[in-house]
Amino acid sequence: PERRPVASMAHLEGLNDEQRKAVIHEDGPLLVLAGAGTGKTRVLTTRIAHLLITGRTRPSQVLAVTFTNKAAREMLDRVAQLIGGAADGMWLGTFHSVGVRILRRHAELVGLKSNFTILDTDDQTRLLKQLLQAEGIDDKKWPARVLSGIIQRWKDRALTPNKVTGEDAGEFANGKAAEIYRQYQTRLAEVNAVDFGDLVMLCVTLWQQHPDVLEQYHRRFRHILVDEYQDTNVAQYLWLRLLAQGTRDVCCVGDDDQSIYGWRGAEVGNILRFEKDFPGAEIVRLERNYRSTPHILAAASHLIAHNEGRLGKTLWTDVKEGERISVRGVWDGDEEARTIGEEIEALQRDKHPLSQIAILVRAGFQTREFEERFITLGLPYRVIGGPRFYERQEIRDALAYCRVTVQPDDDLAFERIYNTPRRGLGESALRTLRLIQRAQRVSLFEAARRALETDELKPRPRKLLGDLIKSFERWRDMLDGINHVEVVETMLDESGYTDMLRADRSPEAEGRLENLKELTNALQEFDTLPAFLEHVALLTDNAEKAGGDMVSVMTLHAAKGLEFDTVFLPGWEEGLFPNQRALDDKGLAGLEEERRLAYVGLTRARKRAYVSFAANRRVFNQWQAAIPSRFLRELPTGHLAESSDAGLYATYSAGHHAGLREQASGFDYENLGVTGRSAFGGNRSRTRWRDETFDDRRAVEGDKPDLTVGQRVFHQKFGYGRILAVDGNKLDIDFEKAGPKKVLDSFVDAA
Ligand code: ATP
Ligand code: MG
């Protein structure tokens, strides 16, 4: 028989008393309730290691869940490090990944086969649309995407079709939403598929209906650990409660101040109810913060103290002073990106690894300006929790429209948007086009033109395709006379693309519309559509070369649980952060959730936090004056280093800023089409005051003389050089230090 060596307790070294107590606690349920950076996750991983090292358990008896794949990976690494090897057989993952694993094993019991597929939201919507149509429900009035969101919320609350009441279902689809939900679940089973929400909900159903199966898991999982407990929704909570009936060893860790998924049905109440749910529970509070400097900690604590609904807690650190939090006002988003780029380069020169730097934004669209800046600077970056801006689905779709308009022979682009949004052009018509394309060696677009002159297509696709081709020709003609930004706006409106997104009330869709708006902002920086497309092509080309040490760019939501030496928090403006929806909210709930997000953001920083706000944001064709976020006022001045950029901003902040604060009412998202008829229509004119500042600024920039061959110039990244050739907006320059390079003229100034 194998002899177990006397376990080393090295993993307990360095823990403080409370942490140690939580790690070795043996009798019964345990809740670690503590602020950011106090070592909750560390306690959790050390606790797993402790269970294994002391031989109290085998890896297969441990179940640990957390919220993101990244967090799960980091926890696994951490445990492996502590025990000096992989914990084979341990279940450590997200609720979803563990859910899939369980469902595959017992698929038949919930009416599936074990090789079921997991649908994405597009598939989900398509299926719902079919069901709506079959019921004779007008899916213009009651869009499938909206229903998909409603069903998702039901699933977040573990409401199976049987449990949905008339009240839950409301008016939607003439009161038939619950019925369609039932059909949808039946249909999913028929095609052997599940959606994301099922991964948790079906486990609950499975265990409720098959106590014997639940018992298997009770026998298996002797130790259950949950990170970020404050963000569990009802379905996840039920899931846990059922599993936890089998053991008293349940350890949850969380922080009520970091509950940021209320909008996805998370119930911070779960954490407050822990003692009731798990009788005899021990509650450990951790107060020492190991992550951040006192300035960062003080600022975050002070800010979060403005929330009413909280448990309240003290945090302290004995880290040395460190830098104050930098609060910077800039002129606009462009300047914000430039300043942050410069700061990162300065850090890089001081040998700070880029992987220790993060930019945390409130909304996905904000990443665009940073991405472009980083690409210009040659700073490697990665977008965490989502694709890079120009790789996002809606951006690629919009770019595909632009590409076909400029260059109809772009087959890849044409195929991409041929039936997006769905316009009833199916595979069979496309097959016909492909045949013509091959036989006559022409592009798909040209094939379509030719097909329209024949009877190869059935009347309906022929009509639809004819409309599409005519539209593209019209947009192309418009480019001759009308500003290209407007043409793109028209294109996205007339093609039905924005309508498609607008019909979708989910938070994701709102983000997509914002991304499209941001795309038009990017377009403004170019004189023509082809110049813009070229710019994008160069960007994507550049981006692929990045590797290794990189700056992280992500939303605040995606940053939960992570930490970085340096954190940049841009866009602290009313209407952006806190976002407009929270401001429109009658109650305080929305605003308090935004404030918790700000707390999460600040507490990601170990050493340095840089908060910034812009005085102006360009949204569509308009410049909008922005007012600094109320959260800035809630930071304690004694811990801040405030600065405003010299130059324009200072000039205006002295003269006009007082007026600006009075006149501006934050972002005018109302006019951005989220609610209006046309995403790109509405009020295009800028207010007079904003107009003036806009034009003044342009005049300053407009002074840039034409660039000619032989001229000596200065490039932001490569320094001085001489122009060898000019090709549209691209320049070949022989740089004095960097050698010959192809660059865009917008980054070059006469020396
Ligand atoms: P969050 O609420 O943000 O998820 P957390 O409470 O989970 O934070 P951890 O990420 O576990 O905090 O810990 C924060 C940092 O402090 C980590 O770098 C961790 O390694 C370090 N840390 C935690 N406890 C100790 C300790 N006893 N000694 C030294 N460093 C520690
Ligand atoms: Mg944590």
TrEMBL record:
Record-annotated UvrD-like helicase ATP-binding domain positions: 13-293
UniProt KW keywords: ATP-binding, DNA-binding, Helicase, Hydrolase, Isomerase, Nucleotide-binding
UvrD-like helicase C-terminal domain mapped to chain residues: 294-561
EC number in record: 5.6.2.4
Domain of life: Bacteria
Positions that bind ATP: 34-41
GO CC, alphabetical: cytosol; DNA helicase complex
Gene Ontology molecular function, alphabetical: 3'-5' DNA helicase activity; ATP binding; ATP hydrolysis activity; DNA binding
Class of this enzyme: isomerase
PROSITE patterns: UVRD_HELICASE_ATP_BIND (PS51198), UVRD_HELICASE_CTER (PS51217)
Reactions performed catalytically: ATP + H2O = ADP + phosphate + H(+); Couples ATP hydrolysis with the unwinding of duplex DNA by translocating in the 3'-5' direction
Family annotation (InterPro entries): DExx_box_DNA_helicase_dom_sf (IPR013986), DNA_helicase_UvrD-like_C (IPR014017), DNA_helicase_UvrD/REP (IPR000212), P-loop_NTPase (IPR027417), UvrD-like_ATP-bd (IPR014016)
BP GO annotations: recombinational repair
Pfam families for the chain: UvrD-helicase, UvrD_C
Known role: Has both ATPase and helicase activities. Unwinds DNA duplexes with 3' to 5' polarity with respect to the bound strand and initiates unwinding most effectively when a single-stranded region is present. Involved in the post-incision events of nucleotide excision repair and methyl-directed mismatch repair.
Family listed: Belongs to the helicase family. UvrD subfamily.
Name assigned to this protein: DNA 3'-5' helicase
Organism the protein comes from: Enhydrobacter aerosaccus
